[in-house]
Amino acid sequence: MRNNLHNILDVNVNIGRVKELVKSEGKKRKWAREDNMMASSNGGGIQRYFITLEYVGTRFLGFQKQKGMRTVQGVLEAAFEMFVGHPVVSAASSRTDTGVHATANVCHVDVVRYSKRKPGEVMPPHEPETVKKAVNHFLQKEGDDVAIVNVRRVPLDFHARFQAKERTYHYRILAGTGLLSVFEKDRAWHVPEELDLADMQEACRVLIGHHDFSSFRAAGCQALSPLKTLDELNVCETPTWPCFPTQEQRRSFTPASESCKDKGESLSGSEDMDVNADAKRKLRCFVVTARARSFLYHQVRLLVGLLKAVGSKALTTKDVQQILDAQTITATPAMAPACGLYLVDVKYNFTCSNSKERHTDVADDGLDEFSN
């Protein structure tokens, strides 16, 4: 009798739990339907904005929001909250690490525009240009190292991280014994060695394609697989920054009667002297480009560290193949520092325009670690 009573009680408890689960799932579906209805109605509601950001990563402890830390996401969401009057939620295409820069990182932000005169009343969404100007206003009050460069409306089912099709990173190396300009501090990796461009380009050809990149996978990587397809990896030499017109370029647009040469004047004290010539001769700028759908944790910086070792003759192209085949990070040279890394491009397929749009920025397939 007692066993039967316990069985009946257990059945009743289980039925109660099932009812609670069904009720809970029903509420979730109801909330989802309400959110979609609110967003699609002409009267306003949730609006998802596609935000393109540029920032100097030096004073940020990475992109991802962290309590008590200055991060790009934290600063951005705080600026949005000051604009709309309530907290917002954002998600990034790429959570860059401490010290990494971006010329165009992408994120989406969900905003509900409430009336300030009638609390609780939902207003039509702000225009993208209004969002850009207003949020930049509050960002500038916080600091001068982050700004919104583009805003557009996107559907609620758009996701900046999961729908990104391709990411591109640039890495800047300044090589030589010349003194690093103060304008380049924390903007590039300064190495004293002379680098051989042809050797580095040859090493890139070994690494391009679909490989097991375990040798370029830092500890803590959460990717399900070390297999990645590297669509592009190359090195080119570029002018050093900052770039200004040469004396000859200036003369070509200056009337002869107004030129310093015809007046017999020289602001530097000698018209034939270039005070920057010595520094220009001693430093060469190399830019590494890495492009793929997604990357392993610190993969780009580990690749750059290897290319630098090849360029300085510490390793050969044969060594590169052996390191790749070893499938262990213990065989790989030290990775490059964060200061020279830039997220420059993220590509999406916007079905509304039936075309591929490029937003000089980057992202993941949702299963990989994508900080570099």
List the helices and strands and how they pair.
Blueprint: H1 2-40, E1 46-55, H2 72-84, E2 89-92, E3 101-112, H3 128-142, E4 146-154, E5 166-175, E6 189-191, H4 197-207, E7 209-212, E8 227-238, H5 247-251, H6 260-263, H7 277-282, E9 284-292, H8 299-311, H9 317-326, E10 341-350, E11 355-358
Parallel strand pairs: 3-10, 5-6
Antiparallel strand pairs: 1-3, 1-4, 2-3, 5-9, 5-10, 7-8, 8-9, 10-11
Structural commentary:
By secondary structure, this protein is an alpha+beta fold. The protein is built from nine helices and eleven strands. It has helices at residues 2-40, 72-84, 128-142, 197-207, 247-251, 260-263, 277-282, 299-311, 317-326; strands spanning 46-55, 89-92, 101-112, 146-154, 166-175, 189-191, 209-212, 227-238, 284-292, 341-350, 355-358. Strands 1, 2, 3, 4, 5, 6, 7, 8, 9, 10 and 11 form an eleven-stranded mixed β-sheet that branches. α4 packs across α8. The chain is globular and about 70 Å long. The termini are far apart.
What distinguishing features does this structure have?
single chain; about 375 residues; alpha+beta; eleven-stranded mixed sheet; 9 helices; 11 strands; globular; EC 5.4.99.12; tRNA pseudouridine synthase
